[in-house]
Amino acid sequence: MYNYLKGENQLKRVVVFLIIISNILLLFGCGAGTSGYSTEFFSMDTVITVSAYGKKADEALSAAEKESNRLNDLLSVNGPESEINRLNADGSAVLSEESINIINTAVDLYYMTDGAFDITIYPIVDLWGFYTGEHYVPKDSELSELLKNTGCEKLVIEGSVVSFELPDMAIDLGGIAKGYASDKVAETVRSCGVKSAIMSFGGNVYAVGGRPDGSRWRVAIQDPADNSAYAGILELYDQVAITSGGYQRFFEQDGVRYHHIIDPDTGRPADNGVTSVTIVCDSGILADGLSTALFVMGYDKAVEFWREHSDMFDAVIINDRSEIFVTEGIKDIFSSDSAFEVISR
Ligand code: AMP
Ligand code: MG
Questions:
Q1: How do beta strands 334-335 and 341-343 pair?
Q2: Is 172 in the pocket of ligand 1 (CB under 6 A)?
Q3: Is 170 in the pocket of ligand 1 (CB under 6 A)?
Q4: Residue closest to 283 by CA, chosen among 308, 301, 303, 309
Q5: Cα 85 to Cα 88: distance, rounded to the nearest angstrom
Q6: Residue 111 and residue 152 in contact, taking contact as beta carbons nearer than 8 Å
Q7: Ligand 1 pocket check: which of 113, 119, 121 to mutate, most ligand atoms within 8 Å of Cβ?
Q8: In degrees, to the nearest 5, what angle opens at C-alpha 176 toward C-alphas 172 and 179?
Q9: For residue 187, which phi and psi values (nearest 5 degrees)?
Q10: Which among 107, 243, 260, 263 is the best mutation to test ligand 1's pocket, defined by most ligand atoms within 8 Å of the CB?
Q11: 3-class SS of residue 265
Q12: Residue 125: CB within 6 Å of ligand 1?
């Protein structure tokens, strides 16, 4: 179902849409005389919104929804059609080339981040109840048992066959699936001839080109300490901005907050003072994997990691004192009402 955003009779009026979705605000206006279409649907376990401009925009939106649903069926951990579900149930499976490529990227990220990003964390995230909603704080002994089964070196990938070295292993692509989907949906929208579009996957934003008038899309990063406020604005052009934050999914027990991003060293929610990491680059899958990984690493390691890979991505890091740090490569496209510190190379 598409909502027509702008018609001929609205020529010369700039429309500013304020969409608050999960963790990022999108602030955008479309240029005079450009027709735009927008759609919103539920897929990949989140609300997805796509707005596209230009002649083939309506066609692009239906293709975008179809592509999201295809990826949802392929990658979710509970869909009957899901290849990942089949692998987790059987411990070994022949997978499509697409799933193998995603798993290989996840394994590359595991080694690149020194294990901070680890798709074999699934049994631990499951024990905490983040999939079922039946939340539970595991005992140390339970976590140390489960940690024996994690680590990507225990995944065997031979051609199109993936198998687990240990019987109780399972994988979860939740840390990169939305980023991958944003890459594929952007590709779909572009292949329809659209040059200007903005999409949000539960707050993770992919900007195709710029706004219809050629200016950059304005995307706001949520303040992790206040879900009705934002910490700053990024101006994007052909870029993704993906945020990992402890405020996005959590439960509280006995006054303690437990969130969904697990430190693979401890099996517990990462607890290092960082409250949100936004990655900006031109690849959704990379941005998604790295946002999770840098959140786990904590500030010092994340900065060291960025200095080693500053040609690949940039980041906005916020901590529990509401301090904002922005890497040098995006200092000119980031603005905030608060003071922020630039991290130099
Ligand atoms: P994100 O919101 O992209 O940071 O991803 C968080 C999701 O990824 C969680 O809901 C889990 O499904 C999964 N996950 C949690 N911790 C990790 C980790 N250390 N490495 C990879 N995936 C993780
Ligand atoms: Mg992620």
A1: unpaired
A2: yes
A3: no
A4: 309
A5: 5
A6: yes
A7: 121
A8: 150
A9: -60, -40
A10: 260
A11: coil
A12: yes
Query: Can you tell me which residue has the tokens 């130099």?
Result: 344
- On the 0-12 / 13-18 / 19+ scale of CB atoms within 10 A, 88 is buried
- DSSP-derived letter for residue 173 is -
Q: Which residues contact 221 (CB under 8 A, 6 or more apart)?
A: 23, 24, 230, 231, 232, 233, 234, 241, 243, 276, 278, 316, 318
Tokens of 159: 């051609």
pLDDT values of the chain reduced to their tens digit, one per residue, 345 residues: 222 232 322 222 222 233 333 334 444 443 434 679 999 999 988 999 999 999 999 999 999 999 999 999 888 877 777 899 999 999 999 999 999 999 999 999 999 999 999 999 999 999 999 988 999 999 999 999 999 999 999 999 999 999 999 999 999 999 999 999 999 999 999 999 999 999 999 879 999 999 999 999 999 999 999 989 999 999 999 999 999 998 888 999 999 999 999 999 999 999 999 999 999 999 999 999 999 999 999 999 999 999 999 999 999 999 999 999 999 999 999 999 999 999 999
Is ligand 1 within 6 A of the CB of residue 130?
yes
Half-sphere exposure of 83 (CA within 13 A, CB side): 20
How far apart (Å, rounded) are the C-alpha atoms in residues 34 and 27?
17
Q: Tokens 């429309």 sit at which residue?
A: 15
Any atom of ligand 1 within 6 Å of the Cβ of 109: no
